[in-house]
Amino acid sequence: MTRPHGRPPLRPFAALAVAAGLLGLLAAPSGAPSPAGPRTAPVAAAENTATVFYWTKTRNWAQYKLHWAPDGGSWTTVPGTAMEAACTDWVKKTVTLGAATGLQATFTNGTGTWDNNGGRNYALGTGSLTVKDGVIAHSDPCAGTGPEPTPTPGAKATVYYSTEALGWSTANIHYQPAGGAWTTAPGVGMQAACAGWWKREVDLGTAASLKAAFNNGNGTWDNNGGADYTIGPGVSTVRNNAVTANASDPCAAEVPDTRAPTAPTKVTATADGVTVLLTWDPATDDKGVTKYQVTRVGGSGGSV
Fold first, then answer.
1. Which of 199, 155, 161 is nearest to 180 (CA)?
2. Global pTM?
């Protein structure tokens, strides 16, 4: 008897292997790394800078150049880089120090005249610095001297500070409007107003007053014995630890006295052989009489 021939049956394990292979094409193994996302460029470290202000009133040079080297770095090519006008009697130059925290500096007019601090150079740090007749200080003497594009609404305080008894060559005001924040120490530079006085106008906004302390930019402070000074709007003077509110401008030019005083009247002289006694009714003057001058004419010996 003959058996009919038929198609052999498929093997189950072979079908399963093919299916697994197809699935492997569609799904990555669970342990494979995910595609990398977009990379962010590294942020460069901030570079230190210094803005150097140089006092010109006692120099009167035609031009000013800064010859400098960052600490640990190389000097600029002689005679240095040009400085720019900053405000009255000041020029300035901002330099990039990189990672350095200071610089050595000298100044020149570009034609052979130098100020190198007596051969020692000027050792400066970062931020805003002034060099005035050999004295270094941390300050911006030109802050607030430019015109405001839009006036700030609110009250203003005009503060005059006396350094007559202190001998400071620079003055900063470090202040806080009532309810507001303090300026960053050492504060903002004040402008020389007249001999012995420095001036700064402060916007109070809606504040009714401000607290203030003063310093010379080199670590010497006047903070009213730790209590600070409370100053209101308008013109105020601070002198010898005392605040005078609604003060007159201490730098206002005095009106010259052009009217002579009247002559004394009822002048009498009494002599006793040794002395002469003079008496008179005082003179009058719209500004006040400060002294009299007595002159002797003729005779010999003795003194007035």
1. 155
2. 0.62
In a domain, 143, yes or no: no
pLDDT 10s digits, 78-88? 999 999 999 99
> Are both 163 and 204 inside the same structural domain?
yes
Residue with tokens 């202040």: 175
CA distance 126 to 134: 18
Question: What is the residue-wise DSSP string for 269-285?
Answer: EEE-SS-EEEEEEPP--
In the chain, % helix, strand, coil (3-state, to 5) comes to 5, 35, 60
Domain boundary among 85, 112, 138: 138
Pair of tokens at residue 258: 């052009």
Q: Which domain holds residue 273?
A: 258-292
Strands 197-205 and 221-222 come out as: unpaired
pLDDT tens-digit readout, 127-138 = 999 999 999 999
DSSP H stretches of helix in 167-291: none
CB 211 within 8 A of CB 254: no
- Counting the structural domains of the chain, the total is 3
What tokens were used for 250? 């201490």
Whether omega for the bond prior to residue 186 falls within 30 degrees of 0, making it cis, is yes
- DSSP notation for 69-104: EETTSPPPSTT-EE-EEEETTEEEEEEEEET-S-EE
